[in-house]
């Protein structure tokens, strides 16, 4: 199939795919394949744990007698 035979949406999809592919090639993830240091793993786990324990803003507002 030739480009001249594509409809507008097919042509847009082709361009989108080509641009995305090129950007991935140029910008890719420079850290891909590397391992996290133990210290960072601990910090990430602590951060996720703190987020899981967060109090919803709606509850805080209600406890303070505020309309949210």
What do these coordinates show?
With 68 residues, the chain is mainly α. It has two domains: 1-32; 35-68. 62% of the residues lie in helices and 0% in strands. It is built from three helices and no strands. It has helices spanning 8-27, 38-52, 57-63. The longest helix has 20 residues, at 8-27. The radius of gyration is 24 Å and the shape is flat. The relative contact order is 0.06.
Spell out the key features of this protein.
68 residues, 0% strand, 62% helix, flat, mainly alpha, single chain
Percent strand: under 5%
Give the ordered list of helices and strands. HHH
Reported for the largest beta sheet, the result is: none
* Low-confidence regions: none
Distance between the termini: 57 Å
Shape: flat
Class by SSE composition: mainly alpha
Count of individual beta strands: 0
Q: Could you say how many structural domains there are in total? A: 2
Question: What layout of secondary structure does this protein have?
Answer:
Elements: H1 8-27, H2 38-52, H3 57-63
Concise account of the structure shown:
The longest helix is centred in the N-terminal third of the chain and has 20 residues, at 8-27. This protein is mainly α and 68 residues long. The chain has 3 helices and no strands.
